[in-house]
């Protein structure tokens, strides 16, 4: 049955279904709140305008939806993988060089998309069987668990004992509890926005305990136009070899992240996006979002696991909801007060929500193994899964020059290699079967 006629009966709203207007706003706002902190954190860390990052994430997401023909409910925000490379490039060649590097990264996506278009993607089934996909998806969720815990317990990003705050962890757990209760016991529309309710509840608690910094809200203007860095208007482009060498290779890291997120979405939505609209189209769309961001002065884009977690938890897969979140991001990029309020949401609130969202992603990977009846009595399966999980969650990395494979990326590569070179049966298993 074609995807256009297929309707996932296990969801509240499937990909091509529209919610009512009021519900639409609430569901989209929930996605916006979920991705907001991460999207604006990247530009803050590298010294870019957070308003531009919001606008470019919204434009990039709408562009992604258009290019993929509205078939994939994915939100694209600022990519953390480019933080260190951008800082290095900015130190050497300034912000224009960083935007040029982002452009090169987007072009790498396009080149790879063209290659896959020419040779097809049937090889993916052999390279990425369930025994590789399941653990990788688990790593996607579990590798983010440290970030969630840090946000939930510490006053600063550094997880040092002196930064531990018991009030923070209590607020994080309260936020988590509110979200779980809403998800389990509420009915109707309210049951679809447990994350939004959890964030609001956690924010109110944070206000009561005095850990919300409202100074940014007071200083922000109601209307502000982000300063877009447009080539030939804001600066004169000049070729930078450092930008090419430092940032272009990172595209291969985020491409593995892209493929991993598609794996999760395939499972959640009961589709195969590698086949339709096709990996070549999704990669091209992701690259287009990064190219547009580079031309407007924003950070490179990537799909967000946080929003995938919202899809899995709420069972609302509507691409119109994602498009609504993108539209709100663009609008809020120009409304300083609203952006400042969302930016003031404290870490423990986001951390409490993330406990659930990242866990849902990891559980999706476990479900892939269960649904495909992977037999862990077979040494081959046990070895592949074990190595992927420990490398991915442990934070192991491989660095060669400006290219770094870390966490999920390295785990994916190692898992693929093991799957291709290990025999179906260990020698001891073959001998045991022969005796039996």
Automatic annotation (TrEMBL):
What are the record keywords, sorted? Answer: Membrane, Transmembrane, Transmembrane helix, Transport
Q: Which GO terms describe its cellular component?
A: plasma membrane
The molecular function terms in GO held by this entry are:
xanthine transmembrane transporter activity
Q: How does it sit in the membrane?
A: Multi-pass membrane protein
Residues annotated as transmembrane: 21-45, 102-120, 132-154, 166-186, 193-212, 319-343, 349-370, 382-399, 405-422
> Would I find Protein biosynthesis among this entry's keywords?
no
Give its localization. Answer: Membrane
Major place of residence: membrane
> What family is this protein classified in?
Belongs to the nucleobase:cation symporter-2 (NCS2) (TC 2.A.40) family.
| UniProt xrefs under NCBIfam families | ncs2, PRK10720.1
Query: What is the recorded name of this protein?
Result: Uracil permease
Species of the source: Carnobacterium maltaromaticum LMA28
